[in-house]
Specification:
The protein is of the alpha+beta class. The chain has 2 domains: 169 residues, Jelly Rolls (Sandwich); 93 residues, Orthogonal Bundle (Arc Repressor Mutant, subunit A), CATH 1.10.10.60. Helices cover 38% and strands 23% of the residues. It contains 10 helices and 11 strands. β2 and β3 form a beta hairpin. α2 runs antiparallel to α3, α6 packs across α7 and α8 crosses α10. The longest helix is centred in the last third of the chain and has 19 residues. The protein is globular.
């Protein structure tokens, strides 16, 4: 499947994603819902989680552990656009692989990685894997699903040979513990997350999330998010002297007109009167 706009092009071949970014700077802050193995072909990939910053340069590879929020910047470097390959390891694929392992092959003492962004050493396995699939940056050459599946397996085994902790990290299928809904939403209200994603990242099914939310708020989750975003916008406009155009996207709105009307409805004044 191909996705295009003026700034980027992506090709998705059986969960191996080829990504080009042509703009001067493309940032997206998101929840990492699945494990990813990422190779940078050109440009630069900057990842920030909390206070830890990781820079991935051409020829380098990084592993992203699922169920975490990472600030990612894909940007050109030295006159070359960002080009990267992202191998996505979903739970169903990993379960099917695990079923084929003999139990005696699994290191039962292995512990999961604590960090979410793991820069990988330059091993022949990793280098050989990505050299073999970089030709598919040419979108006129479409690989078969079988070939892509083999490449995903190759990447998986390369990780397992690098560090036995990847056994525990990759094959952990426990659901995340329930975490405080308000705490999560207060920290993440500005991000473009669906209700399904918020439920998942608080360790709940969508129906359980909605039921739990009713216990703590008279508002629906959607209305609570709008109110929280407006509150943040009000505080920013009062204290930081930013323009309305600066603020509405910062707090999570996509449309300036919607933001202005919602703000006036909640506070009785236009946001421009505070800017």
């Amino acid at each position: 499947m191909e996705t295009k706009n003026e700034e980027y092009v992506t090709f998705n071949y059986s969960d191996i994603i080829y990504s080009y970014f042509f703009s001067d700077n493309c940032m997206c802050t998101k929840m990492v819902r699945d494990h990813f193995l990422v190779y940078v072909y050109s440009g630069e990939y900057v990842l920030v989680e909390g206070k830890k910053k990781t820079v991935v340069r051409p020829g380098e590879c990084v592993f992203l552990r699922r169920d975490n929020r990472v600030e990612m910047t894909k940007q050109p470097k030295n006159g070359e656009p960002f080009m990267g390959i992202f191998i996505c390891y979903k739970r169903d694929f990993l379960r099917s692989v695990l079923q084929k392992f003999e139990k005696r092959e699994l290191p039962i003492e292995a512990r999961k990685h604590k960090e979410s962004v793991i820069k990988l050493p330059d091993t022949p396995d990793i280098k050989g894997l990505f050299l073999s699939i970089t030709p598919y940056f040419d979108s006129s050459i479409k690989p078969s699903d079988d070939i892509m599946c083999l490449k995903m397996l190759e990447g998986l085994h390369a990780l397992l040979r690098i560090d036995e902790r990847f056994y525990a990290t990759l094959f952990d299928f426990t659901e995340p513990w329930k975490i405080d809904i308000f705490d999560f939403m207060n920290k993440n209200y500005m991000y473009d997350l669906s209700m399904e994603e918020i439920a998942s990242f608080t360790g709940r099914s969508l129906s359980t999330f909605k039921r739990d939310f009713k216990k703590i708020s008279e508002l629906s989750p959607e209305k609570w998010l709008i109110s929280r975003r407006l509150k943040a916008a009000y505080e920013i406009l009062q204290e930081k002297g930013k323009t309305v155009s600066d603020v509405y996207e910062e707090v999570g709105f996509k449309n300036l007109s919607h933001f202005s009307s919602a703000f006036k409805k909640q506070y009785g004044i236009a946001p421009s009167s505070l800017a």
